[in-house]
Amino acid sequence: MGASYSKTSNDDTRTTPNKFQPRDGITLYDSGPSPCGRRVRMTLIEKGMKWNKVEVDLFTVEQKNEDFLKINPNGKVPALTIRNVEGIPDCSLFEANVITEFLDTVFPGIKLYPEDPWEKAQVQQWQEWEISLTDDFVPLMYANTFGFVMRAKESTSDSMFKDKQNFTQQMKEKYRRLYDGTSQTREGIEQLAIGCYKSLLILEKALQDKTYLVGDRFTIADISVYPRVEMFSMLGLSITNTHFPNVTRYLANLYTRPCFSQSEDRKAKMSRYFLSYVPSLIVGIGNWKSGKSHVRFYGTEVIDRVIADDIMQSGRTSVNYSVPSTEEFLVCDFPMSAECLQMKMVLTIKGVKFATKSCDFLDTIGKPNGSGGLYWMQHGDRHVTGHKTILDYINNTTPGKSLYPSDPKLKADCQCWQAWEQTMNWMELGTVVEKCMISQKLHERFTAENIDDLLSLKIDPKYSAKFNAIITLYMSRVNRDSPLLEVLADYKHLIPSPEDRQQSLEGHQELLKTRLVYLETALQGKKYLVGDDLTLADLAVFSRLLLFPVVGLHISADLYPNVATWMNTIRQHDGCMEQTTVFEKSLQTYQISQ
After folding, report:
1. What value does the CA radius of gyration of the chain take, rounded to a whole number of Å?
2. Burial (CB count <10 Å: 0-12, 13-18, 19+), residue 444
3. Which of 114, 131, 300, 483 has its CA 20 to 30 A from that of 516?
4. Helices (H), ranges, 297-337
């Protein structure tokens, strides 16, 4: 196999006139510090493969370069292309979990994904745990790490954009807030850190008396979890043997495996060292260059409280996940959730009896990726978390035609569409849906008569780590002359101006219109997104687009004829019609008219 691939240096790729042009062999578009890119590197090393590497500069937002967007429309790393490799169809793939599964399926060597549906579901649950961790991890990384690095590199926020073509106006505003240290309040940073540590406690408990996460062997679950967790120290969150003995043992054991040490280049190792062990140097240089006096947050301020709260929570009554005797599955049902709609449509299409358990929309706030096992399903004594894991598990364990194609490339294409939909929700749609719809639901629940119930969430262990997100969302709908401010005076600064509200909405609408244009082009001459049959790709994208009217975007046949026709096809499908009708009816109250 080795003769089929070539490995080029970073310098070679930089001298290419267009570094994103197709090239023969396996090419990984990557960034050294990226934990997602590192998962793919580990997989390639474990499989004994060689590859071309193209470095994508995240600091200059090169991932938004129009040539790179042709490879990955999500504008993220990693992405991978295969050209002229014997026995493998040419393809372009994005999203680390899609890439690693495809590589494991079509290339020989160690098998990292189990064949058994339940074992595979357990592996996928850890992959989704890692993704969901980003709900807290990514905004904390930006505020408590990236902002300090920016100030150490640049003397002013405007100097970051000089001679750089990839920054949109919205991105410039985001980066200015990061540079100025105003992207998060101190309390907000603290709550994000608590959220990260709460997720880490899930890992700590799962590793009790275990060497690996799933079964008694090394799997993709271990590859998926390690890079993100190792980065905790870069965010100012220490992982000590006192608080996390199982995690520290686990990380030390894994690092002895060659793929972990070999998947990180010298530059990435140096960055991790300085940010983990001498962050005061970065902070000092940044404050000196910018003339500011920013103070970094450290997890030692909250870790003991997180452990104490977890002990207290463990004594509370747990949720009853018993499946009714007349049904085969029990699934969570959050109001107006596209994820839950997808699960119910798949179960209906597969002809499986299921019951639903109503869940509180409060739990979804600030969790676009479902952190903390937000989305769950019970099948007998099996508790499955993570909505994509659930979809795959249902598809693999129930009778009827599979909703994935059998061809590995076509299946990967489906999974890329699922990643496209998930990223659209995380980066563009989810925030504005919260502001337009979930904020209204908050005001319907917490009125002037019971506003103290809202404030009490701050000391509720279940909601304390996300209270900042909840109160910010609530205040986004409060007017500056509202009588509510007699009680909410401490949060008056969170009220956006009407101009800011409108600018934010219009900015997100423009990004979503770009998504629609991309989808319109992809559907040209096609009935379904991938192949000739309905797949999980169609259900994922369709269910998310049903939320567009909530943010003032109505998909008309005049502007998007292919998308409108495709949506009507799915809407009329026997397995989708009833669930879609109920879902759309629940949204009518919250739609923004054009």
Report:
1. 24
2. exposed
3. 131
4. 303-314
